[in-house]
Amino acid sequence: MSGHSKWSTIKHQKGAADAKRGQLFTKLSRDVVLAVRQGGSPDPTMNFRLRLAVDRAKSSNMPLDTIERAIQRASGGGDGADDFEEIFYEGYGPGGAAILLQALTSNRNRTASEVRSTFTKAGAALGEVGCVAWNFESKGIITMEVDTEQAEEVALLAIDAQAEDVQVDGAYVEVQTRPEDLEAVRQALVQADLPVLSAEISMAPKATVSLGDKEAEQTLKLLDNLEELMDVQKVYSNGDFSDEVLQRYSKES
User: What's the topology of domain 85-134+208-252?
Assistant: First the structure.
């Protein structure tokens, strides 16, 4: 399981985003709107991207009426359509780890300035389009934490459900699927009464970069700072962080 994926799982468990719930709900609403646009339907039963976005919003305790308003706006039935556009930014963090981030913004100049400033303050480098995107591919990612002795059994179940790859790191299990197979694999795991922490379409790195302790902590801080920007929806990295660094940073953050 890649260090960045494990860190994302730890943050999900900590509920770190609760401290900025208003900002979190704004981002979750945008996720819902984008899912309606990409999936072509405002019906979660017909649009698996929307179903995932709604499930994520519910898991963050977002009110149902707020979710419904976002769906109505995206389908033209609400109080004004969202005029944001999707933009990807790419760069390198301290130590050379690749960073790819997705932004949804109504002001391209503002977002570019905020992203560039965040990279610069961290001693990192914002790059040109395409400089790191080649190292990522769209995948369905399911994360779980199970009893250590159960992990291998869970891995076999996921493979039987047509998962492409399963990575086990102690009690942590990361299941990778083709994007179109994500929902079927998730359903198979849920029906087996397994604790699915998250399921989403993500950009998975094809190869990871191991970082020294100092560079790893600097990169984790940069990833957190990027995720805190209002216009940034998701941040991906191919950084591979040691368990010791993750545990130490988790206690400090």
Answer: Alpha-Beta Plaits (3.30.70)
